[in-house]
Design goal:
302 residues, two-stranded antiparallel ribbon, 15 helices, binds 3-methylbut-3-enyl trihydrogen diphosphate, binds magnesium ion
Length: 302
């Protein structure tokens, strides 16, 4: 990843978006109070406000904007998706999984608090996401809310992120070929990218064609995103990444770098981004920000 990455124009856009999103998080997360259970709320807030690029909620917000949906709705859906992503990171870092001490530049949730609290914080972020999605404040139309719940649940569960994480762990002891590695990465990371884009399209009651185009775009950038994460694990900078790097090969993780080597993994990620931009060609200038996201996905240092 080159130094020019630091000036990537999307970084400022994402930072501005994060400021808006953080206000919504503050409204929707339980307040740490004097009650007995407040340690749980503190742990949830700690991990959410530790930061992160906020790329998935940005996709939701941006696709919803393409269909002129009020941010009153799209920000709540964006929050729900980022809560699920944050939960997945808290659990991913646990000793039973990747056993990491650093996340988003800070001690991981189980290091800052303890393992049991980190497990509960993850559980509670996940369930809060669905409480938010099913709330009429998220959209007055219950059919739309139900569709959001359905696609986001599927993308997070056994046919999505959690299923992918299972393969990821099994693959530490079993060598995977290209097809299985694509499946692993698509489930673990790609499906939530797809749900993030489709959520905006569902809010916008987009046509089947528009939804199909966004879905193809998101599968391509989601896979490219995880390939880049694997590349950064090999040649990234820990300070910029805010997490421990150089761990995948020692843990025997199934990555594209392991399978294809760095150069070919990069070529593959680039070809996915070219494909992604083709899928959204028909949206014209309306999809300019999505094109910027696609470029950012492979040209980032964190
Ligand atoms: C990290 O996701 C986990 C992967 C799926 C590679 P991000 O790189 O989006 O992490 P944050 O949200 O910016 O911390
Ligand atoms: C995790 O993938 C993806 C999730 C679904 C949380 P990684 O294990 O590669 O993510 P990092 O490198 O710890 O962020
Ligand atoms: Mg992992
Ligand atoms: Mg990890
Ligand atoms: Mg990684």
């Amino acid at each position: 990843m080159s130094e020019s990455v630091l000036q990537h124009p999307l970084i400022t856009t994402l930072e501005n978006f994060s400021t808006i999103l953080d206000k919504e998080f503050d409204k929707l997360l339980p307040q740490a109070s004097v009650s007995l259970e407040s340690k749980l709320y503190e742990a949830m807030r700690y991990s959410v406000f530790a930061g992160g690029k906020r790329i998935r909620p940005f996709l939701t917000y941006t696709t919803a904007n393409m269909f002129n949906i009020s941010s009153e709705y799209s920000l709540r859906v964006a929050v729900a998706i980022e809560l699920i992503h944050t939960y997945s990171l808290i659990h991913d870092d646990l000793p039973a999984m990747d056993n990491d001490d650093l996340r988003r530049g800070k001690p991981t949730c189980h290091k800052k608090f303890d393992e049991a609290t980190a497990i509960l914080a993850g559980d509670t972020l996940l369930t809060l996401a669905f409480e938010i999605l099913s709330d009429p404040l998220t959209h007055p139309n219950s059919n739309i809310r139900c569709k959001l719940v359905s696609i986001i649940a599927r993308a997070s569960g056994g046919y999505g992120m959690a299923g992918g994480q299972m393969i990821d762990l099994l693959a530490e002891h079993q060598k995977l070929g290209l097809e299985d590695t694509i499946r692993l990465q698509t489930l673990k990371t790609g499906e939530l990218f797809v749900a993030s884009c489709l959520a905006g399209a569902i809010l916008g009651e987009a046509s089947i064609n528009a939804q199909g185009a966004l879905k193809n775009y998101a599968y391509a950038i989601g896979l490219a995103f995880q390939i880049t994460d694997d590349i950064l694990d090999v040649e990234g900078n820990e300070l910029a990444a805010g997490k421990k790097l150089h761990k995948d090969s020692s843990k025997g993780k199934a990555t594209f770098v392991e399978l294809l080597g760095l150069a070919q993994a990069k070529e593959y990620a680039e070809s996915l981004i070219t494909d992604a931009n083709k899928y959204i060609e028909n949206f014209g200038d309306n999809a300019k920000l999505l094109q910027d996201v696609a470029k950012f996905v492979i040209n980032r240092n964190h």
